[in-house]
């Protein structure tokens, strides 16, 4: 086998022949950056008594994840895009790995990682299979691509014993698309894949950090800053944000736009949009930067005009930092934002509505403060990480308990 495996000192017993071994779980993601979904969660689950493995494409992030979370890691080449021959090779290698590890449960993340994990787990006869539905690219796809995505999601959901949707609106969308039986798909508590560390990393950092971050990026200390955090692609609504920005910037010279993320070749923006953003001295492009709390501290309002989401972490992070948000009334965002309370929801692909909503926050410090404070209170009350991690541990125990039915009625949300 070409997959590189690495154990962790002190790991719970993984020998499938050892009756004393812990219930063993294998997480599968295509690329190691997706393991950020499991930060903190993995070590919590391990401390709860489970043996844990992580499988992803090779890279420094995979090694760092294993060391930080204390789990065994396995490097296996996979791609995010559709590559039939490479996908078959990855499926065969993953099947061999699962046959060797013989886990009690395999947990797949993202559309491609979920598909490979569910098919390999089914072929390897893994007793319990969980597909984490973190988003539905098919919702914004068309034609042949949409049909292929619909088919692959149905396969993943069909082979899973449990589908965990990251939001209630994502669960509804999956049911509306006919992807999954109603009694197989659940949402843990109020949703979100990992909650947010609102009492640690993501909390208001004060004026000193705000000033230092602005100085570092050449932003005036008295500016009003609109922020964006995410991939700089069409699906994130960056083209509409650029259009709204032109209107806002022309009307108010105090405004600056701070954009955190990278331009990508897949789903790329039009060249003239990219060129205009790069050329504007009041637009600050940081590139990829995972240390986002200081960047949020420099912002006054956060915009996420996305076309689709599962449950956007950016909106929870911004709220935890006491920032108001403007997002689209799409699945995922409607769970993260209380319209008119913690932020404002606007129609997707509507640059004028986006600009108007941002203008209201630009014009009123009191509105920014009120919605930001309400957002932080909601995050603290409903999206704490420990509660979500505990709900996931309970789900694992129910699925791997002796004599557990392959598919049980959902306990996390009522059937509707």
Report a brief summary of the structure.
By secondary structure, the protein is an alpha/beta fold. Helices cover 41% and strands 16% of the residues.
Describe the fold and architecture.
- The chain is an alpha/beta fold and 416 residues long.
- The chain folds into 2 domains: 209 residues, Glycogen Phosphorylase B (Rossmann fold, 3-Layer(aba) Sandwich); 176 residues, Rossmann fold (3-Layer(aba) Sandwich).
- It has 15 helices and 14 strands.
- The strands form 2 sheets. The chain has an 8-stranded mixed β-sheet, sandwiched between helices.
- It is globular.
- The protein starts with a strand and ends in a 16-residue tail after the last helix.
- The C terminus is likely disordered.
Task: Chart the SSEs and their pairings.
Layout: E1 4-6, E2 24-28, H1 41-47, E3 51-56, H2 60-69, E4 72-75, H3 84-101, E5 105-109, H4 111-123, E6 128-133, H5 143-159, E7 162-165, H6 168-176, E8 185-187, H7 207-216, E9 224-229, H8 238-251, E10 255-260, H9 271-279, E11 283-287, H10 293-297, E12 301-304, H11 313-320, E13 325-328, H12 333-336, E14 343-346, H13 351-363, H14 365-382, H15 385-400
Helix pairs in contact: 3-4, 4-5, 8-13, 11-14
